[in-house]
C-alpha cells in the first residue's frame, strides 16, 4: 500500500513557510515599535528636564510614562532577540556551573 507522504510534506512545508513569513513581518513591526518607543521615551525625558527648569512645577507623569515604555521595550526586545537566536545568559554562572559540575 502506497503512502502519501510527499504531498503532505509539501503542504506542511508551504504552511510553515507562510507562518515564517508572518513571523518575519511581526518581527519587523516589533523592531519599528521598539525604535519608536525609544525615541518617545527619550523625548519624554528630555521634555521633563526642560520643563523642570522652565515651569515652576514638574510634570509627574512623564517619568512614569518613560518607565512603562522601557518595560515594553524590554519585553518586545526579548521576543525579537528570541526570534533572532539570541538569549540572555549569565556567562560567568554558566561557566562556573559547567566546570564545577562536569559529570556529563
Note down, in words, how this protein is organized.
The protein is an all-alpha fold and 104 residues long. It has one domain (5-100). It has three helices and no strands. The protein has helices spanning 5-54, 61-84, 91-100. The chain is elongated and about 70 Å long. It starts with a helix and ends with a helix. The model has no long low-confidence stretch (mean pLDDT 80).
Number of domains: 1
Order of helices and strands: HHH
First and last CA, distance: 45 Å
The largest pleated sheet is described as:
none
Mean pLDDT over all positions: 80
Helix content: over 70%
- Label the structural class: mainly alpha
For the secondary structure, the number of strands is 0
In what range is the share of β-strand residues?
under 5%
What is the overall silhouette?
elongated
Question: Helix count?
Answer: 3
Parts with pLDDT < 50 across at least 5 consecutive residues: none
Rg from alpha-carbon coordinates: 24 Å
Amino acid at each position: 500500500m502506497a503512502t502519501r507522504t510527499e504531498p503532505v510534506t509539501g503542504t506542511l512545508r508551504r504552511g510553515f513557510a507562510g507562518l515564517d513569513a508572518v513571523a518575519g513581518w511581526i518581527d519587523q513591526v516589533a523592531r519599528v515599535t521598539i525604535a519608536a518607543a525609544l525615541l518617545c521615551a527619550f523625548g519624554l525625558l528630555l521634555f521633563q528636564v526642560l520643563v523642570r527648569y522652565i515651569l515652576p512645577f514638574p510634570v509627574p507623569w512623564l517619568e512614569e510614562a518613560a518607565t512603562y515604555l522601557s518595560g515594553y521595550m524590554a519585553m518586545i526586545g526579548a521576543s525579537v532577540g528570541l526570534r533572532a537566536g539570541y538569549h540572555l545568559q549569565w556567562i560567568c554562572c554558566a561557566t562556573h556551573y559547567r566546570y564545577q559540575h562536569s559529570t556529563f
